[in-house]
Amino acid sequence: MASRVIPVEAFDMVVFGGTGDLARRRILPALYRRFVAGQVSDACRIIAAARSAMTADAFRQETAAALEGALPPPLLDRGRLAAFLDRLDYVTLEAGGETGWAALAARMRPGVVRAFYFSVAPALFGALAERLRAHGIADDDSRVVVEKPFGDDLDTARALNAVLARHFGEGQIYRIDHYLGKETVQNLMAVRFANILFEPLWNAQHVDHVQITVAESAGVAGRGAYYDRAGAMRDMVQNHMMQLLCLTAMEPPWHFSPDAVRDEKLKVIRALDPVRPVDVVRGQYLPAPGQPGYLEDVANPDSRTESFVALKVGISNWRWKGTPFYLRTGKRLRARESEIAVHFREPPHSIFDAAGQWRENVMVIRLQPNEGLNLKVMIKEPGPGGMRLVQVPLDMSFANALGAEGRDMPDAHERLIMDVIRGDQTLFMRGDEVAAAWAWTDPVIARWDAAGDRPQGYAAGSEGPQEAMWLMHRDGRRWREIRP
Description:
By secondary structure, this protein is α/β, with parallel strands linked by helices. The protein has 15 helices and 15 strands. The strands form 2 sheets. A 9-stranded mixed sheet has the order 14-13-12-11-7-10-9-8-15, sandwiched between helices. Strands 3-2-1-4-5-6 form a 6-stranded parallel sheet, covered by helices on one side. The mean pLDDT is 90. This is Glucose-6-phosphate 1-dehydrogenase.
């Protein structure tokens, strides 16, 4: 199976914060891979802008070192790497001052797509947007890319939306959530809406419950200062997990187009029931032999910030009323694993004399690692001696089913950056969607802040605090095992 690579239009992309960690680890490697694939042509240019005084040649040398550290050797062909580095430029620039803006304006070319990637702290968004307009660098066809966190709560998210809206239209603002760029997440929509097989069963009548898990085996060391201000609820639930919930639960859009898809996601968020105190569990990972605990990683012995959260969520609409969605995410868990598991109800009547043998049908969408789909069904156990039922998986690993293409799927940032150049906002969050997610999340966080309780401790390498297990057990259900 060969995929078509369709080159994008010529563009000038300015990466503010171009010497930062995100640019080195994600943005520049993504652009290089698309260049190697032939999607980014020689007519495209990437201009890094940052405070550091640096020549363009020095920036190219730093980029070459970053690419060598981020990409496998087979991709780093000397000729292709040199050609990509020729596409790079650098401008020393002060976001809140006037230094460098005239030089940046002089580098912009007429007649090409202009995209501005704000790989900087949200506090600088307003200053960058204002100066891009004031110096005539951005026009009404330009695109602005902003990373999370998009606010710390509803008020700050509204303030950021207002700052950007003063200078750019909603159709020009691309709020990235890299989970939406994952192939498996997009395949969730394809499986649901391109196959008649599943959609008639995708409702409360046939689905017992849904589990969404985003587990990380690493702790927060190196990100402690940020993470202790955010916590799992802000860092994961409000954005990444909310998007997975929306794509799982939303109604079929009338068309696969930006506003049609985002309208349906917004309806899901607005239909979410308020989270009851008994339906949420917080945790912090404890020290383990040779490993610090959360409090040591964030250098704050009095921290009340959660590194784990589990929730039971209800959706009050005709499709999902009565079917709970269980969400959990955490650091320093047993393994790195992200999946959506749709557990179907048992048949209304069994014709087999097989008490205790029946196990539920489950569709599992694996996001990482080993991306793919798995459907567990009941069959007859082979052999003579009666009708004995056994559960077996119908397993599709992308790596096996799609060959080389499945093993070398594009990074999420590759897909999303190319969508920015194409002007396709389908996989980006809209301003009202972000605000609605914060409006649902804020009361939960406010309740925690008011109580001042410590999160429950859990052992590093476990599946989280015991209280999270009881969140499921009291309903007669069990979390799926997080497997190394």
